[in-house]
Amino acid sequence: MVFQIYAILSRSFDSSVPLEDPPSYRGVALGGVGTGAVQSLLLSPVELIKIRLQLQQSNSGPISLAKTILRREGLKGIYKGLTITVLRDAPAHGLYFWTYEYVREMLHPGCRKSGEETLSTMLVAGGLAGVSSWVVCYPLDVVKTRLQQGGHGSYEGIADCFRKSIAQEGYGVLWRGLGTAVARAFVVNGAIFAAYEVALRCLFPQLTSADVVSGDLSKNPKQDALKIHKE
Fold first, then answer.
1. Which residues of 15-27 are buried (b: 16+ CB within 10 A; e: fewer)?
2. What's the pLDDT at 58?
3. Could you say which of 46, 68, 183, 211 is the most buried, measured as most Cβ atoms within 10 Å of its Cβ?
4. Which residues contact 151 (CB under 8 A, 6 or more apart)?
5. Which string of DSSP letters, residue by residue, matches 88-154?
6. In degrees, to the nearest 5, what angle opens at C-alpha 133 toward C-alphas 118 and 200?
7. Which ranges constitute the DSSP H helices of 13-79?
């Protein structure tokens, strides 16, 4: 879903680029920002419940916990941390997709249009995309986790969380665990992008990545029924 939202938005933000060409880097970045913002609406409640489950002592499941939060705190409670999630994910996804497109083009010139990059290019570009996005958003992720954990040590807001965390533990607290996060991000995101690109080539063997992103499946009549909506 994330990749399809990105594909649509990257075109929508820069419609001057012909459909037969890959989206511009401007469209890629803005499409990524929009994708991150949209994703936050779904991701924020899920991450809140995950964090609460990891910290609680009881054995209640996610559905039971979600019902408890809704009953005690209402819809506002289930979306606690939404603002910081958007602030984290929107710019991070913009850099995420921009880095991937830029690096793959640098490693294999012309591949954005031809779709002929190697597996190693996909893995390296995807890995670096994950690393860059995490480096940029990591301090916000630390603050988001602290805001959503609830209970003791509650904060009045984003600025208050930043201020108290730094005052109590120093600036290093904002980067604690970064090394592990970026190592994981390189491996996971390299695999994600490689799997996505390989899947496109298996599903649409006669098309380039640009064709699939634009929704132009006319080169393969058997795929007409699967034509991607461009609106």
1. eebeeeebbbbeb
2. 58
3. 211
4. 55
5. HHHHHHHHHHHHHHHHHHHHSTTHHHH----HHHHHHHHHHHHHHHHHHHHHHHHHHHHHHH-STT-
6. 35
7. 25-55, 62-78
Q: Give phi and psi for 191, each to the nearest 5.
A: -65, -40
Nearest CA among 90, 88, 115, 85 for reference residue 2: 90
**DSSP per residue over 167-203, as a string?**
HHH-GGGGGTTHHHHHHHHHHHHHHHHHHHHHHHHHH
For residue 206, what pLDDT is reported? Answer: 63
pLDDT of residue 52: 87
pLDDT at residue 190, as a whole number: 97
Give the tokens for residue 59. Answer: 């054995």
**pLDDT at residue number 148:** 86
**pTM of the predicted model, to two decimals?**
0.83
Low-confidence ranges of the chain (pLDDT < 50): 152, 212-231
pLDDT value at position 151? 55
Q: Both tokens of residue 113?
A: 């249009």
pLDDT digit string, tens, across residues 46-60 = 999 998 888 875 577
Nearest to 216 by CA among 226, 227, 225, 205: 227
